[in-house]
Amino acid sequence: MAKGKAGQSWLKGVRVCSIHPLSQECDSEKMPLFGKSQKSPAEVVKALKEAVNALERGDKKIEKAQDDVSKNLVLIKNMLYGTSDSEPQTDIIVAQLAQELYNSNLLLLLIQNLNRIDFEGKKDVAQVFNNILRRQIGTRSPTVEYICTKPEILFTLMNGYEHQEIALNCGTMLRECARYEALAKIMLHSDDFFNFFRYVEVSTFDIASDAFSTFKELLTRHKMLCAEFLELNYDKVFSHYQRLLNSENYVTRRQSLKLLGELLLDRHNFTVMTRYISNPDNLKLMMNMLKEKSRNIQFEAFHVFKVFESRQACGFPH
Amino acid sequence: MLSGNNDEEQDIMFFHRVDSDEIIYQTEKKSCKIIGKYVMGDLLGEGSYGKVKEMLDSETLCRRAVKILKKRKLRRIPNGEQNVQREIQLLKTLRHKNVIELVDVMYNPEKEKMYLVMEYCVGVLQDMLESTSNKKFPNWQAHWYFIQLMEGLQYLHSSGIIHKDIKPGNLLITLDDTLKISDLGVAEALDRFAPDDTCYTSQGSPAFQPPEIANGMEKFSGFKVDIWSSGVTLYNLVTGKYPFEGETIFKLFECIGQGDVVIPEELEDQLIDLLKGMLHKDPEFRIPLENIIRHPWVIRKPPKTLERVPIPPLRGDELHTMTVLPYLYDYHYGDQSSSTQYISERQLNEENKISMQEACTNNKGSSSKKTCKSDGRQTSCLNIRKLATCHPS
Predict the structure, then answer these.
(1) Domains, chain B, ordered by start
(2) Shortest Cα–Cα distance, A78 to chain B (Å)
(3) Phi first, then psi: what are they for B359, rounded to 5°?
(4) Average pLDDT estimate for A182-190
(5) Contact at 8 Å (CB) between B61 and B71?
(6) What is the pLDDT of residues A115-132, one digit of tens each?
(7) For a tag site, which of A73, A211, A249, B269 has the least CB within 10 Å?
(8) ipTM above 0.90, yes or no
């Protein structure tokens, strides 16, 4: 008898637990002060998706949609980062949130409509995206795996450099993506990558330099991957690169020359280097660079020039 | 010093004796010393080559550390001057967040001193390890430093540089907990057109040498040497022990030469796997750097279970406040009238007694322990050692 009773009360306990989430909702209705933070991830994601869709359709209630988007973005951001007086949500809630984001395809939707979201909202999107991207379960990075199945996200982000108002936000997200080899590989091997040669030369200085740092990250971060890529696409890459080195824009010329030096001096790119210095045209270009008025260009050109020179020294028997 | 003042007592009292009560101390003046554009601060550490002091760049207000090398001392170290020359040459070209940056080099020919101005670091990994009771880090902290070590090492290797002396004693930590690989004194730069990373010499620390060197192989793969010593370093960080030990260098090398590593089984499986890979006897099969970076234990983000091991305080200062400030203060506001103060030992003792009592009562009253340190006058017990001149009265 006693045993049965104990079992029953244990069962009851379970039942109480199972209705717990519901009772929480009741609580949130009673206490509007805490209501917002109690909204479940699924609800927030759903609300945000609806708002973004409304924004995309461009109804007359566009301002309300924009408000809703910003509000829900802040909610998601607070779940991930916490606020000044509340801690970030527990791992379980964050996992639910991530799962909802994957299932609803919201990340892509947000990025596609980034230019329609207001200024603060754009920054929130970038913050949420980067946080979700960094999420790890043991050795796995679920968001990285997710994006691998949805490379449109990356391509949309790369296209972001075409639009002034979202270029910098896309840049921060892209560089975060470039930290992961799998994602960097997709970006490097896409045709869109060659657009970077154009982006780094645009007239807006901050966008050009942001694009350049992403470009550099892609070409230097994962040594083996980059070496392989450069070897495979040597002709295409370096014919594009030539244009950067001859650019009208001083900053582009200087930056690209510096990066060229770094690439050639990296031991991983040994084969690329030998190939580059075997071409007399490249030597001529560097010698012309040594004659430039700018000291900085002379200096960077010298770094590349000395590679040619030491090869010469090796070639002659002593 | 040796003046006998009484002729009759000369044979008995050869030395002039001074009662300790009569000794008068003079507080050391913090006089500001400026070298180039840098303001000198307090001592940070000392090595066989000379001292390391803190500095402040007066133009950029960056905190720096300066390694002061004395030519006289360098000559006594085997290959000393050569190693310094090599270190300067290598560090000049390197720029990475996990490799120490050489900011400036100055030379004073009269004093035969060389000043190597570097990034400011607050501690050495070795000292942090020794400050703990079991000489090891919690797993997550070891992981945090290890991934930075690998990043720095990857950079060095891609620049064709083999460090050859990776060990906790050569890894520095900055205030924001960034690891910096330092001491490239015995490093080797490969020729740019060298087909592979073959090396012929090594002068690193014995306990961190791989079997191929312990066995006296004529040539070996340089990159794999760094992998091995990083493996020993990781072993040391997570277990507090060394994989190989020996009372003499011969016994140690014999032990390493056999190359049988015993890895404690209480470690996580992935970590054991990584250590086995890095400490593989045969350099051919030793795990290469690009695979270490992709290893599950490295990719994984370990949970912060145990408390962080802090950086040991410098002379009681846990926050590592800038030590240049008192000198600057003196330089600009130091008053001329009471700049030198004389204190006798008796006064000092009494003051100490009072401050001790105060500290005790404070402790009872408010239970705040921190107050007792800063009690009393400027010449509290901490400063006795610094009193520079003593005048016999």
Answers:
(1) 34-119 (3.30.200.20), 123-299 (1.10.510.10)
(2) 22
(3) -60, -45
(4) 96
(5) no
(6) 999 999 999 999 999 999
(7) B269
(8) no
